[in-house]
User: Fold these one by one.
Assistant:
Number 1:
Amino acid sequence: MQNNTIGIVGAGKLGITLAQLARKAGYEVYISGSRDPSKIELSVQVLAPGAHAVTTSEVARVSDIVVLAMPLGKFHLLKPEDFVDILVIDAMNYWWEVDGPRSDSVAEGMTSSEAVQLHLPQARIVKALNHMGYHDLHDETRPAVTPERKAIAVAGDNKADIDTVSRLIDALGFDALNIGALSNGSLLEPGHPAFGANVTMHKLARLTS
Ligand SMILES: NC(=O)c1ccc[n+]([C@@H]2O[C@H](COP(=O)([O-])OP(=O)(O)OC[C@H]3O[C@@H](n4cnc5c(N)ncnc54)[C@H](OP(=O)(O)O)[C@@H]3O)[C@@H](O)[C@H]2O)c1
């Protein structure tokens, strides 16, 4: 596994921004929307040159790491059989205006990432890239060890996967803050202090403690 091919499911504000950052960092990028790839091909070509518009099944088939950047309320449309033994970054948030009642997507007492894990039982879910707005993601990339470099939190149950995602985040231009188990992803959800955070590692650690 080289981890040099990034897949993105969702070609909206977040998906396209991540495609831009990943291309800039030298990754091969495959991206899908909800419909035929031809519907997003031109915008992908213009906004993230070099990224490939494909179906979601193709994204999962060819990518080392897949980022979910689609509305949370639609994750049940993903085919579990497409996501077998794949490292998946859940960058989605529950947003009632878009997703309807939370209980339609996420069972009581669960984090949204745990619900995604339940739907994709053979994927390895890591929560990351969800708490910073797409405009900040776009504007705030900095080389490693730059003073005041901004940080992105990562939650997951497998140390090796957290490390892999942390290296990706570093390559995209941010420090990565390991906040532990996937269940700690609740600390990054809307309504919690770290949601929307565009801050340094030190400050993010305080917001997630
Ligand atoms: N916007 C941000 O700053 C930001 C930051 C961090 C995290 N997030 C999270 O990222 C997710 C996407 O947000 P966004 O702002 O990028 O939304 P958006 O601009 O509305 O884009 C959503 C994208 O998801 C696609 N999509 C919908 N259903 C799909 C499906 N079944 N399969 C594949 N793709 C599907 C849409 O395609 P169609 O247009 O074809 O329907 C669209 O390209 C949300 O969960 C959000 O909370 C957003």
Number 2:
Amino acid sequence: MSIKVENLSYIYNHNTPFEHSALKDINLEIDSKKIIAIVGATGSGKTTLVQHFNALLLPSKGKLVINGKEITSEQKPKGLKQLRKNVGLVFQFPEYQLFEETILKDVAFGPRNFGASEEEALALAKKYLNIVNIEESLFERSPLDLSGGQKRRVAIAGILALESETLVLDEPTAGLDPQGAYEMMQLFSHLNKVENKTVIIVTHDMEHVLQYCEEVIVLDKGEIQGHFSVSDFFNQRGLLKNLAIEMPALIQLRERLIEYGFSNLETVLTMEELVLKVSQEVAK
Ligand SMILES: Nc1ncnc2c1ncn2[C@@H]1O[C@H](COP(=O)(O)OP(=O)(O)OP(=O)(O)O)[C@@H](O)[C@H]1O
Ligand SMILES: [Mg+2]
């Protein structure tokens, strides 16, 4: 399922004194089955952009074509419900949206809402609570009894339970401890590589971009600054400097070695490759 964005602009509070142009003439194509990062400074328009991917926001100008369905300013797309099922969107801080009496009911809500029987919905809820590592002894407890990290995992299970082809995650690891963030990223990587889902992750974490993503889309002040392979992205020295993006430790080390005169390191993205190439050059 591809996502195509054509000349998309979005204005908050149009025709009021609070009018704010959050996206300006965005053009973009996201191929299916990829795992892609959307990066950019706070306020650059990342959340506004991804909320268009399941028609939560409609364009002020331009259009999106998602799975062949057009989304424009004039019309809600036909089959909106199907689109919302095909593109599962996990909000920034999704734990604020937990509302059911029990954890199990909360996760089952989505599938039931999209037509699953009670029994199917509960089975899906159990399956995805297991996948996000929530113990069965917690299923009948209130979501309010959980820690912040557990709440986040329950909220994400609620979207996973829709079994969408495309998953859009708005800063899914923000505020999690390193182990929690690692497990979450492993899960998204698994969903992409093993279950063939398209995964779009809004993130500020460049280590995650380096380790898990294939492509990077860069937003700046509501405009696309580029759409790169991960390898090309970490070679955009001018752009990275302008955006004041903190580089992963490995890339910082690589760049220092290049400054010291080591050659052939520009495409290196793993520690193994870096060690190999540097030792080969030292041995020359
Ligand atoms: N509901 C709203 N009403 C008015 N302006 C808004 C609204 N939501 C966002 N904006 C503005 O639109 C711009 C883009 O916001 P957006 O939330 O998309 O940025 P972001 O890149 O997701 O930022 P962050 O990294 O902080 O989550 C910002 O200038 C923001 O202040
Ligand atoms: Mg945001």
Number 3:
Amino acid sequence: MTNQIAPVARPKVLVVDDIAANRELLEGHLDDLGYRVLQAKDGIEALEAVAAEEPDLILLDIDMPRLDGIAVCEQLKAHPLRRLIPIVILTASNDRDTKLRGIAAGADDYLSKPFDPKELLIRTKVLLRQRALNERLDATEGVLHALARAVEARDRHTIHHAERVGRYAEAIGAARGLTAEDCELLYQGGVLHDLGKIAIPDAILLKPGPLTTAEFTKMRSHSVEGERICLSLRSVAHYLPIIRHHHERVDGAGYPDHLAGADIPIGARITAIADSWDAMVSDRPYRAGLAEDEALRRLRQGSGTQWDAGLAHVFIDLLDGGLMQRVTRTQLAAIA
Ligand SMILES: [Fe+2]
Ligand SMILES: [Fe+2]
């Protein structure tokens, strides 16, 4: 019996080099350092090896037949999950140009040939620790998403609501020219916006009739509850304003803080539109969903009072361009 909760696995390092002698040399060093070594002799083999068994670190030569190291690096860094695998470029010590091309392609570090075993040890250790932290961060987000799905699972009326809100919010952000990172945040924030409903009892959340004043107050606490749940999680700090403020109104009549106009963080202003739209056109326990024409009329009517007029305008243009059909279609495809 061991005293550890999780067994300590030997980190897997993939060595990619077209020269067998270089691979063997590195394998010898890495083996001494306690790593498990996988080998590939060109870029194609490297991508195949990563697909078959994800390594914790890649040591990557640049000049190789079939597919060179720069192309491998670019492909892996463009992949949503594999981009977290640290990549170390292997170069001749005087080859500044290759180092720079490697860094431009997203490499995390470089190592000069001939290798100094001590340097190899320190660089691999640092990157592997970084990798472990990234994985934990990833896991935190995974847990939150699971919680968001748990909220939805309680109420068949809101199934996939959060996912759609995320997609709408992301589309508004892109149309407004926000960066790819901000759009990603809008998506994540959209998925998590109603997380606080986990703290609302079924008797209120699923009540088929109108809520009493006390029940309504409780229901409204979900935005603050959601923020409270996520407060200690550093990795979601950027979404907190979306979670807390997605029910604010630009005229100041929303909750929880009665913020008005541009005082409402832009992510929350965007999410408010995405959320309201999806709520209007979906069935709820106490009413059927509105027809699109009617929802659109209300959106126009409330723009400038409930919602940011400029952002509502952007959203209406996106709806005209078929956004709603696209979002629901991708969602159906994902479920099938
Ligand atoms: Fe909400
Ligand atoms: Fe919502």
Number 4:
Amino acid sequence: MEENKSEDFSKYALGLGKLRRRRWFFWGVILVYVPSIWLSLRLTNSDRQTCKVFAVWYLFVFISSILAAATKCPRCGKLFHVNGFIPLYLRRCLHCGLHITADKKQRKKAAPENI
Ligand SMILES: [Zn+2]
């Protein structure tokens, strides 16, 4: 899964950008869990109401995880985070090894030469 150094990753920028947005949405929803449950318990002081907040949060996690898992790799065209049945939200494509920020890294490396 060694990345070809001469490969132009800028052509994958659109697909990788979409992938990064979906990943941010997914991890953001997970990060919101503790504050939202804490706030709900604080404001409502009710387990029943907090259970409803949890149900909404769970729905968002479910949707965001499906969206992130269903995104295809712009290089190989296979599902970026799924190889088999279980999604793994790693930073590299599970099939071709394309890094989630390959286009940004290449742009940074190329920038000093352009000045
Ligand atoms: Zn791939």
